[in-house]
């Protein structure tokens, strides 16, 4: 049975190898003319410098956390934490590296060939490095942790019929494999939180700052080399939209896989073991293997596009093909996997946990997750794409000034919460019905099983965007910019589906994690959290307020850094009027430093709060209270994430709608356009900093609570009183 | 014991009589010159016309609801519903009437005397009519329902030791007094919902419309008679800020009183009765009597100000004095009441419900509520007043354009959620510890026990505001406007405390109602709602999305009506340029009609959704699911209410801060001021339409669920499958 883990190893090696191949294939390509090289190098240097500082800071916090976990919880969990953090950090770093190489090469190919298809291929090759690394490194880490502790240390040795436990010498608490897997997931989450928050503040501070002065005051177009903040803006795309996104999705991926594996272990140890202990191994292996298969499918999917000699000029079709091939193979092979693992297994024992497990149940649950993710993505597409009414209405409202742009966008974002939640609720209900909370975990895992494909597409967007920036700044032909713009906008549409998966899987994985949390401190065989008890209720109230506090702090951080950026750009324009005439080069470096320092200074507090809040509350008010916090935070964060994501997206596209001249009597530079630009600027930090961070917030909270609950359920202030 | 209810009758008659006296005292005063009379009459006619239409619509929906309740639930509940609706509608109507008489008289007194103190007295006398009517009518209705069904029909006759029940002939379900009391509360809630939503849409559509064209485009000051929307704006103050507010607070008041009375009955019938059945009567009477005493205290408080021959020129001190006298007497006399009712009562039986009740426990719980309400008010004062950092920072950010005004305001609103929730959580925890869920209900009741005083102050604000509008439009001296502006701004500060009470009591009353709801369908002696079960969890997800949907619909409705208003004002300016030069009178009437029709058309759907959503879900998914909806909606709505209220308030005051010239180098008409006006306009529907409606939303949902649960817990689709 354990030998099946070789599939995971194979998949991760295959994925990373293909990523390495693509990396060097891209790097070998020509960079274009001197001006392009110069700009690309400036972006690369800026991005590298920021990541270096960021990782230094994160390394200190991460190591400190690992040591605490190693001592207070379990030394194995500490090591797993470090492995997770390393995988996550590496994936982000590699993705950013390739993005800063690929951007200029994409611009050059577009310039040389004037072919959308050929340019697409380079951009996608760059993106695929990130996508494959995310899944490859995540699975490699899982393989390592599983082998080290599950097999080698024997923590999943079920030959005696019971799950081996160990005892922490300091606290005297016993623990099992689930805690070690949680440690791994937590390591990924912590890095993701810092990368997302830090990168998000960086990129939006630069973006807002550049727009506020450039577009609104100086009336120069985006990416105009006269704008001193423009290089910082492009650096931001790489550290935020690429490195941040990579770490984020790696975290989601690992969280989704681990949540079902951990839950299986908790069910096993709380229902007195199964009739056949081997079923546990199968339940733990299933999500890992399913995702291993998914990665292999994604390699095939990416390969089919990259091998093509003749590529069509319809990038939308090409990218969708990659996604559908990857998803199709995953689902088909997953069917066989589920049959292989669970056929003939005696699952009667599971009925004590409130569900039975047929041979296809985990596969059905995973498929439900996939369908739900796609539907959620389509819904957010409806609310944010200018082909549909809601976004058109925002553009319309812009005629009456920016106040109504904002008001209408807020209303759209708020209204857009209901439908995705209905889909999510239905998926939750159905997957629970099929496989209990384990099924819910499988649903989350299903959504992300072909993450390599979705991340490739997600990353290809910012690479194309950056290529466009470089084309603009180095004065390439307008045709070049048109090609990159097309690629970028296609990426945005396809990425909407990816966002659906991210939010949906975060919600389901958190619920599944929360169940493990409840198992971990209660001796009940059925899960119970009484929301009407005072501890849980007050916890839920505080929990619901936390995402608001967290979001407010992030927005504040962005606004603060953006205001500094505005002052700096204004100062440069004032002191050197030759900048605006194009006779003098602006000082890009100071702007990069402002973004960089703003991000580094402001990212620590919200990130630390998200980790510390449940733990501190646990040590004061105990485990039930934290259970309340988790449920309150989850409910609140899901709504805020959908609201901010869709409102931000709709504002962005309403602006684009006006820019393309679709609004009667209005266009670039009109009053309605200026109002729409205000909307877009307001939406920027909401959709790119706050929204994605909220997904991580709820997972980091549930994971860290799960890791610490064995300690604070015994030792807390309330129990001492 | 029952005779004590005469205190409630006495209080309500005293309150209403004093209100009538004040009404005619105000009405007898002089209206001022012809122009003033003309404007005041236009406002009065507009307000009356809208209320007439609104009440017609509401009467149809209300009567239909009453008939359904009477047939399906209990005929007594149907009648109680009608009584509640009548009381709520009457209070709103009377308050609006006096406001439209008082406004012009306040302007005239200010003009004649040039004394802030004397003007204050007239404005406060007008406001007190509303305040006293709210409490007086609410208590009169409670007295009537109690006497009719509790005493006369004998539903609270405990001589046999058990609570009498009756059976609905159609559904066969048995019910007791608690259902009838719920019917009364629901009647008040439904009217409040329509008044708040309808009035809120009306007033903000007019306000936004007037500002968008007037201030931003035509650059004419607020309340300028050349602005065609200005009369509509002033009508809006009366139907939204006065009639809407009155019905809203009557609903909160009744909800808070009833939640503890109902819960007492539910505890009694689910713990097999108390050792001494009389304890139940005392627990039911306590909140009613406490509020009766509160109303008497408020009459004394108002009297001390209105009797003064010489009134100081410091309105802040005078108004605070009224509030503190009223609150002080209430708390002191409440101490005696609690002692009288509960001294020597055997409360051992209550231990089965998880708490004991000492002779002062209900009083302590009520006092905790009062303190919590004040602290929450002070916190929101901190976040929204320009004397403090958060609002100053928004003003500062306005220098960088409207996008940053919005961003900074959002951040402030989001961050401001945490502290009030901590206070609320602490109050919930403490009052629960002291008196179980009954204590939580008493906490809510305590916050609103002197509602007559807070509503008087709340109403005095819009009256002064309207007086200022009339002064401006009829071209009175600038000194007059200065006096009314002072009065208005003082009202805003004092009203912040009132908002703290409204949000806090809504949260606590809902939690207490929810407990009654749980008792009503489960046979357990301890309250239980397992949030991790699939029904409750999915319900909670949908419930959390509902306040977003509801808010989004309200904002949309306001935006739609405001855009129509903008088009109309622009049309008038375009077709009759003489309007702007002052040579021709604008067409006020069309603007009034736009607001009126917009409100009437848009108010039904959100109001009906709030009532129908839990009921429909109940008949499909059953009682547990609705329990989840209630908890999800409560958590989500509290956060949104605080967020929208504080963000809106902060934007408003940031604008005022710049207007008074406190921001270095900026002032009225500067770029920063224009940005701040955008912020204020965005905040308008948030703080005056959405925020207050959310309080009603959660109470209406919990009350309607409580009324219907006996039916849908038996008959629902899921139980049939």
Explain the overall architecture.
Two copies of one chain form a homodimer. Chain A is mainly α. Chain A is 82% helix and 1% strand. Chain A has 20 helices and two strands. Chain A has helices spanning 5-28, 34-73, 75-113, 116-152, 177-218, 230-270, 278-306, 315-342, 361-384, 389-397, 402-415, 418-448, 451-473, 478-521, 534-575, 578-581, 588-621, 623-659, 671-712, 717-720, and strands spanning 166-167, 174-175. A two-stranded antiparallel sheet of chain A has the order 1-2. In chain A, a hairpin with a 6-residue loop joins strand 1 and strand 2. In chain A, helix 6 (230-270) packs antiparallel against helix 7. The longest helix of chain A is centred in the C-terminal third of the chain and has 44 residues, at 478-521. Chain A is globular and about 80 Å long. The model of chain A has no long low-confidence stretch (mean pLDDT 90).
Strands of chain A, count = 2
Helix content of chain A: over 70%
Q: What is the CA-based Rg of chain A, rounded?
A: 25 Å
Mean pLDDT across every amino acid position of chain A: 90
Side by side, the strands of the main sheet of chain A go 1-2
Task: Name the descriptors.
homodimer; 721 residues; mainly alpha; two-stranded antiparallel ribbon; 20 helices; 1% strand; globular
């Amino acid at each position: 049975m354990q030998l099946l883990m070789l599939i995971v190893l194979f998949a991760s090696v295959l994925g990373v190898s293909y990523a390495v191949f693509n990396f060097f294939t891209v790097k070998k390509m020509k960079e274009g003319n001197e001006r392009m090289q110069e700009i690309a190098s400036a972006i690369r240097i800026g991005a590298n410098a920021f990541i270096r500082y960021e990782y230094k800071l994160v390394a200190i916090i991460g190591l400190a956390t690992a040591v605490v976990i190693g001592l207070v919880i379990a030394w194995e969990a500490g090591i797993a934490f470090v492995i997770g953090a390393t995988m996550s950090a590496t994936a982000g770093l590699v993705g950013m590296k390739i993005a800063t190489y690929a951007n200029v090469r994409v611009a050059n190919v577009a310039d040389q060939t004037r072919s959308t298809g050929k340019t697409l291929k380079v951009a996608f090759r760059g993106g695929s490095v990130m996508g494959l690394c995310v899944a490859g490194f995540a699975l490699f880490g899982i393989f390592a942790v599983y082998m080290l502790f599950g097999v080698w240390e024997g923590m999943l040795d079920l030959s005696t019929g019971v799950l081996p436990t160990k005892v922490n010498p300091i606290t005297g608490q016993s623990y099992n494999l689930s805690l070690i897997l949680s440690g791994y997931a937590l390591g990924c989450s912590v890095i993701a939180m810092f990368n997302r928050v830090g990168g998000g503040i960086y990129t939006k501070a630069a973006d807002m700052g550049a727009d506020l002065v450039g577009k609104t005051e100086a009336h120069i177009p985006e990416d105009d080399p006269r704008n001193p903040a423009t290089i910082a803006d492009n650096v931001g795309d790489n550290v935020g939209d690429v490195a941040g996104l990579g770490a984020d999705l790696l975290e989601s991926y690992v969280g989704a896989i681990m949540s079902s594996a951990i839950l299986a272990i908790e069910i096993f140890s709380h229902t007195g073991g199964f009739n056949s202990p081997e079923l546990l191994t199968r339940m733990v292996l299933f999500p890992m293997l399913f995702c291993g298969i998914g990665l292999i499918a994604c390699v095939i999917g990416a390969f089919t596009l990259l091998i093509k000699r003749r590529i069509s000029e319809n990038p939308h079709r090409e990218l969708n093909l990659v996604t559908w091939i990857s998803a199709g193979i995953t689902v088909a092979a997953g069917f066989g996997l589920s049959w292989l693992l669970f056929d003939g297994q005696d699952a009667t024992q599971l009925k004590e946990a409130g569900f039975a497990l047929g041979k296809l149940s985990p596969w059905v649950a995973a498929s439900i997750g996939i369908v739900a993710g796609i539907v959620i993505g389509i819904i957010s597409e409806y609310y944010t794409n200018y082909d549909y009414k809601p976004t058109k209405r925002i553009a319309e409202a812009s005629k009456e000034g920016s106040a109504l742009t904002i008001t209408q966008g807020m209303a759209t974002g708020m209204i857009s919460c209901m439908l995705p939640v209905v889909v999510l609720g239905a998926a939750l209900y159905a997957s629970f019905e099929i496989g209990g909370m384990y099924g819910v975990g499988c649903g989350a895992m299903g959504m992300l099983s072909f993450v390599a494909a979705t991340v490739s597409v997600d990353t290809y967007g910012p690479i194309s965007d950056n290529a466009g920036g470089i084309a603009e700044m180095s004065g390439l032909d307008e045709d070049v910019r048109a090609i990159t713009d097309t690629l970028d906008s296609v990426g945005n549409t396809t990425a909407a589906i990816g966002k659906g998966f991210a939010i949906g899987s975060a919600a389901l994985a958190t619920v599944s994690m929360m169940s493990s949390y409840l198992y971990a401190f209660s001796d009940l065989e059925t899960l119970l959290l009484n929301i009407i008890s005072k501890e849980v209720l007050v916890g839920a109230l505080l929990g619901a307020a936390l995402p608001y506090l967290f979001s407010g702090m992030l927005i504040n951080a962005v606004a603060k850094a953006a205001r500094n950026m505005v002052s700096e750009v204004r100062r440069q324009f004032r002191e050197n009027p030759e900048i605006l005439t194009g006779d003098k080069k602006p000082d890009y470096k100071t702007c990069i430093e402002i973004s960089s320092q703003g991000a580094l200074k402001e990212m620590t507090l919200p990130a630390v709060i998200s980790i510390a809040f449940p733990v501190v509350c646990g040590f004061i008010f105990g485990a039930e209270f934290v259970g309340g916090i988790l449920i309150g935070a989850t409910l609140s964060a899901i709504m805020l994430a959908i609201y901010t994501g869709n409102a931000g997206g709709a504002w962005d596209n309403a602006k684009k709608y006006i820019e393309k001249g679709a609004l009667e009597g209005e266009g670039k530079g009109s009053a309605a356009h200026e109002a729409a630009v205000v909307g877009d600027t307001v939406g920027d930090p909401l959709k790119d900093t706050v929204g994605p961070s909220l997904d991580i917030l709820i997972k980091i909270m549930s994971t860290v609570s799960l890791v610490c609950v064995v300690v604070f359920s015994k030792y807390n202030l309330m129990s001492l009183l």
